[in-house]
Amino acid sequence: MRKMSMLHRWLACVLLGFIALVSTACAPEVGSPAWCERMDATPKGDWSTNQAADYARNCLFQSE
Question: Taking the domains of the chain in order of start, what are their residue ranges?
């Protein structure tokens, strides 16, 4: 019985790690053109304060 509970814990940790890896791998890097396009498609009311600041810094005031 003890081995089974240890196996369940291990599988749960592997599954949670996989979910975390997959969910972060799909998001574009902040400030990239893909991120700016994604933010353009997101309603402004859904933005956090940090997202609004990042958008202004990286998408509006680009220093290229």
Answer: 2-60
